[in-house]
Design brief:
Blueprint: E1 3-7, H1 14-25, E2 28-31, H2 32-36, E3 37-38, E4 42-43, H3 46-57, E5 62-65, H4 72-79, E6 82-86, H5 90-107, H6 119-122, H7 128-148, E7 156-160, H8 163-178
Parallel strand pairs: 1-5, 1-6, 2-5, 6-7
Antiparallel strand pairs: 3-4
Length: 179
């Protein structure tokens, strides 16, 4: 495994997991949200997004977290050898998302390009909580369909169904690196 895409619905912990995996592997962590969201929560120009992602995934080794449709299959999966799907239950992910969002609102923790979550964001039409409620089922249905496409049969697919299983898998990767 040298080129890995970590996917999962909102709140699954993709970024934290991918950062740890990249650290274990000694490779670059590519966070698609950090590329996509420009200052003021403005999305990057789609052509520029594709150009930057294509440049980054041209490397020999990386861990990408995220699954923006305009780059996931045509760029990331085209170069990936492994997909790790954090397929946790809705209650686990929703609770994690609530805790993470509350922490970010209270601490004013800077995110990508100095964007910050606010209480207003939590209750807006574009709320991350609302987004998770809206997309959870469709993404869980879509991932198996996409991964079953014969075009992606060369990909190794690792499905982790709980945070405990994900932690054990990361530990096994860390242990394999010490051998």
């Amino acid at each position: 495994m040298r080129r890995i895409n970590v996917i999962g619905t909102t709140g699954s912990g993709k970024t934290t997991f991918a950062a740890r995996l990249a650290e274990i592997m000694g490779t670059e962590h590519i966070e698609l949200d950090a590329i996509h969201w420009q200052p003021g929560w403005t999305p990057i120009d789609p052509d520029e997004f594709r150009r930057i992602v294509a440049e980054k995934v041209a490397a020999e080794s990386w861990v990408v977290d995220g699954q923006y449709s305009q780059v996931m299959r045509p760029l990331v999966w085209e170069r990936a050898d492994t997909v790790v799907w954090l397929n946790f239950s809705f209650p686990v992910m929703f609770w994690r998302l609530i805790r993470r969002t509350a922490r970010r609102v209270v601490t004013r923790e800077p995110m990508w390009n100095d964007n910050r979550e606010s209480l207003r964001d939590v209750f807006s039409r574009d709320s991350i909580l609302r987004w998770q409620l809206k997309t959870f089922r469709s993404k869980r249905r879509r991932y198996p369909e996409e991964l079953a496409d014969p075009q992606w049969s060369p990909l190794e697919v690792v499905v982790l169904t709980s945070p405990r299983e994900a932690a054990r898998w990361l530990e096994s990767m860390a242990g394999a690196g010490r051998e």
